[in-house]
Design goal:
With about 250 residues, the protein is an alpha+beta fold. It is about 25% helix and about 35% strand. A hairpin with a 6-residue loop joins β6 and β7. α5 runs antiparallel to α6.
């Protein structure tokens, strides 16, 4: 069966024993359903393949059966992925506003009923670095070789991840603190790490400040800011798998 998906989340890849690297791509189908699709080969997720696609793009693919226990998950035939074109931000925002929820509502339902959703932060409090607890383990795995002598794991493992601290209901007492797994944040960290190594930043503290300035201030100053939230496969916790915001020209 063919399906079309508006891609709203491309999350930081994780190492998978079955697929080498398992990436989370999620969004809303043309029939209005939340969808998480896999496996997505690395050269399509981030590479030179003609089937490569970006966040905010419509793509088409053929399904290959249901995925895991989360009903939004779907296996696809990766060789059938076809980028269609970029959606306008007004189209994206209209779809998101019709589906707004809160972290509390998602937690109450649980991932077996709802493992994907969209949250509109009402107050952004902080964006803080968090040590990647799997960094050493994954770094050692990345040094291993396959039978042809190449890297067994072809991932650049970030030493730090980041968490948003925010409120999604005006006046609520509780602060939410959710890990942000958006691929953009991982790339931003890697770029800033290179600047640090080149001597353009004084220290690691400045590196984290630069990441924070973009993700907490620059991309949020015009409003129209949304978190795509997804549940972890193993643990019943929700992470930010995609950050959706307009470009400057989208709201002028």
């Amino acid at each position: 069966m063919k399906e079309r998906l508006l891609v709203l989340a491309k999350a930081v890849p994780e190492i998978s024993s079955k697929y080498e690297s398992l990436v989370c791509v999620a969004g809303i189908t043309d029939s209005g359903e939340w969808r998480r699709i896999y496996p997505i080969p690395w050269n399509i997720f981030w590479g030179t393949s003609s089937r490569n696609f970006k966040k905010k793009y419509w793509i088409e693919y053929e399904t290959a059966g249901s995925g895991d226990y989360r009903h939004e998950s779907m296996k696809i035939k990766p060789e059938t992925i076809k980028p269609i074109g970029e959606a306008s931000f007004s189209e994206i925002e209209s779809m998101l506003k019709d589906r707004l929820t809160t972290i509390e509502e998602l937690e109450e339902l649980g991932p077996k009923k709802t493992s994907l959703g969209v949250v509109e932060p009402k107050e952004l409090i902080d964006f803080v670095p968090t040590s990647n607890k799997h960094y050493e383990e994954l770094t050692q795995m990345s040094k291993q070789k396959d039978l042809s002598g190449g890297k067994a794991v072809k991932l650049d493992i970030p030493e730090y991840k980041y968490r948003y601290i925010f409120k999604d209901v005006i006046g609520e007492k509780r602060n939410h603190e959710n890990l942000c797994e958006d691929w953009e944040v991982g790339e931003l960290y890697r770029n800033c790490k290179r600047y640090l190594e080149q001597g353009k930043y004084k220290n690691e503290e400045e590196l984290h400040q630069k990441v924070k300035e973009k993700m907490l201030t620059k991309i949020t100053k015009n409003g129209h800011f949304y978190f795509i939230v997804g549940s972890h496969f193993i643990f019943p916790t929700y992470m930010i798998v995609g950050v959706v915001y307009p470009r400057k020209e989208d709201i002028e």
